[in-house]
Design brief:
The complex is a heterotrimer of chains A (about 800), B (about 240) and C (about 290).
Chain A: E1 13-17, H1 21-24, H2 30-39, E2 42-47, H3 52-56, E3 59-62, H4 68-80, H5 88-94, E4 107-108, E5 111-112, E6 115-116, E7 121-122, H6 150-158, H7 163-170, H8 174-185, E8 194-198, H9 200-203, H10 208-221, E9 232-234, H11 241-246, E10 253-254, E11 258-259, H12 268-275, H13 294-306, H14 330-339, E12 341-342, E13 349-350, E14 354-358, H15 362-365, H16 369-377, E15 381-386, E16 413-418, E17 427-430, E18 435-439, H17 452-470, H18 476-479, H19 493-501, E19 503-504, E20 508-510, E21 513-519, E22 537-538, E23 548-549, E24 552-553, E25 574-575, E26 603-605, E27 610-612, E28 675-676, E29 692-697, H20 713-718, E30 723-727, H21 728-734, E31 741-746, E32 749-758, E33 764-766, E34 769-771, E35 773-777, E36 800-801, E37 813-819
Parallel strand pairs in A: 1-2, 1-8, 2-3, 8-9, 14-15, 15-16, 29-35, 30-32
Antiparallel strand pairs in A: 4-5, 6-7, 10-11, 12-13, 17-18, 18-25, 19-22, 20-21, 23-24, 26-27, 28-36, 29-37, 31-32, 31-37, 33-34
Chain B: E1 6-7, E2 10-11, H1 14-19, E3 26-27, E4 30-32, H2 36-60, H3 74-100, H4 115-121, H5 135-159, H6 166-197, H7 201-206, E5 209-211, H8 212-218, H9 220-227
Antiparallel strand pairs in B: 1-2, 3-4, 4-5
Chain C: E1 8-11, E2 28-33, H1 42-50, E3 77-85, E4 88-96, H2 105-109, E5 116-119, E6 124-126, H3 136-140, E7 147-149, E8 154-156, H4 162-165, H5 172-176, E9 182-186, H6 187-203, E10 210-212, E11 222-226, H7 245-276
Classes of the chains: A alpha/beta (about 800), B mainly alpha (about 240), C alpha+beta (about 290).
Chain lengths: ~800, ~240, ~290
């Protein structure tokens, strides 16, 4: 979230799209209702189904799964059609709307310039700004009338998304769409603010990132980014998924979203050179480009990894860091596993032979379950660290329909290590609002179950002992790793949090006052502003720095005072970065530092410094010194983003499995850069055999897979089993009665469950053709409690994914439905 | 040596005892009115009725809450009541069929619904044609049978309140109440007439016999039929 | 178990209907805003957890609703209902539970002294010690709430968490509610809150929004905000709940009359005896009474 949960109460308009917060985030949803009750805010729900959220909405608009970009681009077009519908001053001041783009950038017939058809990738050189070769300055047209200005290019790009086209693609009736557009753009001014909330209903598409981009563009146009009650707010799917991502949950990032080095970056200098952005904006006000501090973040990370062994002379141990060349995202990993060869080496090297899975259930949650099971069967060994015997831990027991084959032939040796559950350990949860909140252990883990850190530590120590005893090909990354915990076999998570926060290793003089020390050796740092690139500080994650200072564990703070009245609660937990509650909050004020809306002050300039929230700005830099988006080299928000893998502007592409050709460019129906796979399990269905659009989702009663409710009879009680939601018309057509058994099949498999016939799903007219859509929740599996077993929903989902995040396309695919 | 059987110190006339197994026969000075089986049935009905009464009345009104003490409290009374009710109904059913043959209404007895009953209570009128049972007794017989059935049916509904619509239940409570009230009033008179008001009657249900005089007084036609004494012959 | 014997306003089957408590307390109420209920069922689980009710075996039959109706081990049920409304859908989610009527039909129907009590603060509770499990309350309740528990042989229903509210806590369901659609406080406050919300809904276009606090039962200890107050059937709420007339007839007319009638019969028999005496065999030595056995 750019903003926070509580901040939603400050919104005048809430667009809930690509998510069903009432279902999946019921506790946070109270702030939606707060906004409705206290401000008369309008809630607009756009969803394929009439959801629990829709039941609370002032306006509900149906939409076909996977067509959100068309819908959002339609709203952007609507906004740009009239200056009263977008916040022009904001756009001029805080976005790259006035910037001029080079002539090489083009969009034609569904393809952006630079498409390399052979690789299925874009070469992004042509997308850049148009800088002067010498000064590196590039053109800016404050009137935003220049045909190559971002705003005009955007206008031109979205011009095709007329309300009629939106209806044709999305199935949303034109009148309903226009009502939504009218309500959403009512915030395109200084007086009003709107927020957009989304979740996995956007992320899990082959165009997921661009859906979110479209929302960000819309919010920048409306002037809603950085303002209380505004922002683009992602609701994370798990209680600590935000923390996991922050701490390098993905292969391509290190803690704090630093980049994973590749083998081409042979030394620290080269790595830092390529990773540290140079300031682009040489005109107007300057960009602060805070990422020039990248070396400080990286060196401090290296110091935390390798301790005393990391010295200036050895590049702070940079050489010991793993270099990652291939793609180790979920589906590639399992593809490698399944095929037994590594994509990274062009298919020449053997694939992984072992697999350690912690607190997750790949067989349940990966797309295309048969392939998941097939992949695990090819391993030599697998370690599952779980508190229950998940489908992954017993994958060879999968029922016949999963085609796991003869269990006696599967050689995978499986180790199930009992782990404690969330209530049996302390530590922090980082919520969607980026708040680190400490939680205390509630009870002891049963039996031999151990906390994650103990399991990890013991494995680490055992492996290190082996290296010590037996040596090895490359022992240093292990032997030099710093493991300075009070109890090495079971590190205290307070110790770990201190390490993440970072501390001074030597005395650090105060640059402003030579008589003082900024920090003395051993002191916890106050924040990432004190990090150094000379090895005098260490920090496990610069972004979290400030969470455990000399004042103590700030994640444990529980002060409910809120002087802002806007629900910022600065002394509750710790919000990264720098305890800032609203990101980009400089954009909540105008050129003079005056808030757009004096009743909802993000920050404001008081003549000496910025006050309000923790400023997303140098605190004493007067208005006009730096651009509001300090982390971007341009210093302004990007309406046009030349860095993503699938285009600078969002464009509607159909899902990999779609019922129609792309109405805008039939020759390029799906994203030209989205990824597919080619094993015998990677089948993709077509509309002739699978004419029904399907989506998957969760229920509030279960939240997650059966692993959450298996031992809790009460949750099984309130939502006892798998079902398939089917619109009444389709049920009638196929002779399916409510409560009867129904079979749903896709190109990859078939599952069976109870039909829930409902009016909450309606047929949509897509490109003139009546199109049915159905959906089902994901919570069950063959490993669940007796009487509460159900099919793995992902038996049906395709191995297709977003080209930026490699997130699978769980939310839109094709199926057939029949009476079972 | 032949010994005369005794009960306590009293000798028992075995012939009389044997004779009491048959109804409508004369044994010495007495006439057997109710053989043992009849009496057993009557007292079974009577006993279960009183169990129902004492277990039901405390539920009916807290005024009779003390009656629950016979069963160990109200909860126990409420458990006993439906089962006792079933027993009561079953015995009533047996009784019904046992006596049904003797309870056929004669056309002449139709008056018992009205003036004849009052006349009877005033000890007036002509009873000379009254057989083994008078019209009032027959009326009581059918009324109790009907009452037992009403109590059973309404009681069964009340036993499974969850299984029936609320209005049906509410009606059941009302019917059970009304049936019970009517039953109770009838029983008061039944007991009164069978004990205090008509000496000799109670014995008909205990030892099973009545005297000739009693029979002549209350059931002259029956007496004539049993004794063959139509008044002209005396023997 | 009765929590506070001094705080009983009304007690079932008390002979003269006299309140047995001394203290007076402000009437409390639960506030349910169906227009902000998202049907998350946290209240269902909280109710079960707090009251230590055992999980009930349910099956998916094609609805989000946990079970068709309330259950002796399930006192708090969100009723889901999909209705066509304004060219779209209204997805109604209404928390069904004991309404804690001011004039409780269950209490009126209950035959066991003290088995159903109304506390001074208006909460209607089943006293498990005294309940005889007869089920009369089921017939008296206009909301179809009390359920017979086969294991305990007693009636079971929502207690408004009397064990929590007595010590100043809100009911478990209110504590668990994530959206704030459940509130707990004095009846007066909850009615004010409800009327405010109704006014808000009306100005937001729900012309028929209403606060459900039916006068037929003297008002309820659970006031419910309805966006579609003209469609009570959507919420499975009775339009005019009251203590059933048949229950009143039975308890207040037939029963006293019956007692009089039975007493009358006994007195009548005595009267008869005094006036007419025994009906004896006239003359002769045969009194009609059998001689003792020879």
């Amino acid at each position: 979230m750019t903003n926070g949960w509580v901040d939603i109460k400050n919104a005048d308009v809430i667009l809930a799209m690509g998510g069903n917060p009432a279902e999946n985030h019921p506790v946070g949803f109270r702030w939606f209702l707060e906004a409705k009750k206290t401000r008369g805010a309008k809630l607009v729900a756009v969803d394929p189904r009439f959801t629990r959220t829709a039941s609370q909405a002032d306006l509900y608009a149906p939409i076909r799964p996977g067509t959100d970009i068309a819908f959002l681009n339609g709203i952007i077009r609507y906004a740009l059609a009239d200056k009263s519908r977008y916040h022009e001053d904001y756009v001029r001041l805080h976005t790259n709307g006035p910037y001029l783009i080079g002539d090489a950038y083009k969009f034609e017939d569904g393809l952006f310039s630079g498409f390399d058809a052979a690789k299925g990738e874009y070469q992004k050189e042509s997308w850049g700004y148009n800088p002067d070769a010498k000064t590196k300055a590039y053109g800016v047209d404050p009137t935003m009338e220049h045909p190559r200005s971002v705003l005009q290019l955007l206008k031109q790009h979205v011009d095709r998304y007329t309300p009629e086209m939106v209806e044709r693609i999305c199935g949303t009736p034109k009148e309903t769409f226009l009502k939504v557009a009218q309500i959403v753009t009512s915030t395109g001014n200084a007086a009003r603010v709107g927020t957009i909330t989304y979740a996995l209903g956007w992320t899990q598409h082959s165009t997921g990132v661009q859906m979110i981009r479209a929302a960000a563009i819309l919010q920048l146009l409306l002037g809603n980014v950085g303002r209380p009650g505004g922002g683009v707010n992602a609701f994370r799917g798990h209680s600590n998924i935000q923390g996991a991502t922050d701490m390098a949950g993905n292969f391509e990032i290190l803690p704090g979203y630093l980049k994973t080095p590749t083998s081409a970056m042979t030394d620290l200098h080269g790595y830092l050179d390529q990773s540290t952005p140079s300031t682009l904006n040489k005109q107007g006000w300057a960009s602060m480009n805070y990422f020039v501090n990248y070396p400080k973040f990286m060196v401090s990370l290296l110091k935390s990894l390798y301790g005393k062994d990391a010295t200036k002379d050895n590049d702070f141990g940079y050489a010991w860091m793993p270099k990652v060349d291939g793609n180790y995202s979920w589906m590639y990993m399992f593809d490698d596993m399944y095929r037994g060869s590594s994509m990274r080496a062009g298919g020449k090297e053997p694939g992984p032979e072992g697999f350690i899975t912690f607190g997750m259930n790949p067989v349940g949650l990966g797309p295309n379950s048969k392939k998941m099971i097939g992949a695990l069967s090819k391993l030599k060994w697998m370690v599952v660290v779980e508190n229950l015997e998940t489908e992954t831990a017993q994958f060879w027991k999968a029922p016949r329909e999963y085609e796991g084959g003869d269990a006696s032939k599967i050689q995978t040796e499986v180790f199930l290590l009992p782990a404690s559950s969330f209530a049996e350990k302390d530590g922090t949860f980082t919520n969607s609002a980026r708040w680190l909140q400490w939680k205390w252990k509630a009870l002891d883990a049963p039996g031999d179950a151990k906390a994650d850190q103990e399991i990890l530590a013991r494995i680490f120590l055992a492996v290190r002992d082996l290296y010590k005893k037996e040596g090895g090909a490359l022992p240093d990354p292990i032997l030099k790793a710093s493991w300075a915990y009070t109890n090495p076999a079971n590190p205290d998570l307070g110790d770990v949090l201190k390490e993440i926060n970072g501390r001074a290793l030597t005395d650090i003089p105060d640059p402003k006052d030579a008589t003082k020390m900024l920090r003395t050796a051993g002191q916890q740092l106050d924040g990432f502003g004190q990090l150094q690139d000379d090895g005098s500080t260490m920090c496990g994650n610069w972004l979290h720095s400030g969470c455990f200072t000399e004042a103590g564990n700030n994640a444990q703070r529980r002060v409910t005072a809120d002087p802002t009245g806007l629900g910022m609660y600065h002394n509750w937990g710790f919000s990264w970065p720098a305890n800032r509650r609203i990101m980009y909050n400089r954009a909540s004020a105008d050129a003079d530092g005056k808030p757009w809306d004096p009743k909802r002050i993000g920050i404001q300039w008081n003549g000496e410094k910025w006050v309000g929230d923790v400023p997303d700005m140098k605190p004493d830099a007067p208005p006009g010194t730096f651009g509001a988006f300090i982390m971007l080299p341009e210093g302004v928000g990007r309406l046009y983003s030349p860095v993503l893998n699938d285009g600078p502007f969002p464009e509607h592409y159909e899902a990999i499995e779609a019922p129609v050709k792309n109405a805008l460019h039939p020759n390029v129906t799906s994203s030209p850069v989205s990824k597919r796979f080619s094993t015998e399990h990677d089948k993709y269905g077509t509309v002739d055999k699978f004419p029904i659009v399907c989506t998957t989702y969760r229920l509030t009663e279960h939240f997650h897979y059966w692993t959450q409710h298996h031992l809790n009879g009460r949750l099984n009680e309130i939502q006892p089993g798998f079902f398939v939601e089917i619109p009444e018309g389709l049920a009638k057509e196929r002779g399916i009665a409510n409560g009867s058994q129904v079979k749903v099949s896709s190109a990859r498999g078939a599952i069976q469950g109870v039909a829930m016939v409902t009016n909450r799903l309606t047929p949509l007219k897509i490109d003139g053709k009546q199109t049915w859509q159905i959906g089902f929740p994901i919570h069950w599996g063959f490993g669940a409690a007796e009487g509460h077993r159900g099919p793995l929903a992902n038996m049906l989902t395709p191995s297709a994914m977003d080209p930026n995040t490699w997130t699978p396309e769980y939310k839109a695919f094709l199926v057939q439905v029949e009476k079972a | 040596m032949s010994a005369t059987p005794t009960v306590g110190h009293r000798p028992v006339d075995l012939a009389v005892v044997a004779a009491r197994d048959r109804e409508n026969v004369i044994v010495g000075n007495e006439i057997v009115r109710h053989r043992r089986a009849s009496r057993l049935i009557h007292w079974s009905v009577s006993l279960t009725f009183f169990v129902c009464l004492f277990s039901g009345m405390p539920i009916w009104s807290p005024i009779f809450g003390w009656m629950a003490a016979f069963f160990g409290g109200l909860s126990a009374a409420r458990v006993v009541h439906p089962w006792a009710g079933i027993a009561f109904f079953l015995f009533s059913a047996v009784m019904f069929f046992h006596w049904l043959g003797e309870m056929r209404f004669l056309p002449s007895e139709r008056d018992w619904l009205g003036p004849k009953a009052l006349e009877y209570m005033r000890y007036e009128g002509d009873d000379s044609e009254v057989g083994k049972y008078n019209g009032g007794q027959k009326l009581f017989f059918f009324a109790t049978a009907l009452g037992a059935l009403g109590l059973l049916l309404s009681g069964l509904l009340m036993w499974w309140p969850s299984a029936f619509p609320r209005v049906v239940l509410q009606l059941s409570y009302l019917i059970h109440d009304v049936a019970f009230i009517a039953f109770a009033i009838a029983i008061v008179f039944h007991i009164y007439l069978g004990t205090a008001a008509e000496p000799g009657t109670f014995g008909a249900m205990t030892r099973g016999t009545v005297t000739r005089g009693w029979a002549r007084l209350h059931h002259p036609k029956w007496y004539r039929d049993v004794s063959g004494d139509d008044g002209s012959r005396r023997g | 178990m009765v929590m506070q014997s001094l705080e009983i306003r009304r007690s079932s089957a008390s002979v003269w209907g006299i309140p047995s408590g001394i203290r007076t307390l402000p009437t409390v109420s639960k506030y349910i805003d169906t227009s902000t209920c998202i049907g998350c069922k946290a209240c269902e689980v909280a109710c079960q957890e707090w009251n230590d009710l055992r999980p009930v075996q349910t099956t998916q039959t094609g609805t989000y609703q946990t079970m068709p109706t309330l259950h002796p081990e399930f006192w708090n049920l969100i009723r889901f209902n999909e209705q066509n409304y304004d060219g779209g859908i209204a997805w109604i989610m209404r928390k069904d539970q004991c309404m804690h009527c001011d004039d409780p039909g269950c209490l009126a129907a209950c035959p066991a002294p003290g088995a159903i009590v109304q506390y001074a603060n208006g909460i209607v509770d089943v006293n498990q010690d005294l309940c005889i499990g007869c089920g009369y309350c089921e017939s008296g309740c206009p909301f179809d709430v009390p359920r017979f528990h086969a294991t305990t042989g007693k009636m079971a229903k929502c207690t408004l968490c009397v064990d929590r509210t007595t010590v100043g806590l809100e009911p478990a369901c209110v504590k668990a509610c994530p959206t704030g659609c459940l509130q707990f406080g004095t009846k007066d406050d909850m009615v004010v809150l409800g009327n405010q919300r109704v006014a808000q809904l009306q100005s937001a276009g729900y012309k028929n929004a209403a606060l459900y606090n039916p006068a037929g039962v003297g008002g309820t200890g659970v006031v419910t905000v309805l966006a579609h107050g003209n469609h009570l059937d959507w919420y499975s709420l009775p339009a005019d709940p009251h203590v059933p007339i048949l229950t009143r007839l039975w308890k207040h007319v037939v029963r006293p009359l019956g007692m009089v009638a039975i007493a009358g019969a006994v007195i009548g028999a005595f009267g008869h005896f005094t006036k007419f005496g025994r009906k004896e065999v006239p003359g002769s030595g045969d009194s009609g009474v059998q001689p003792p056995p020879a």
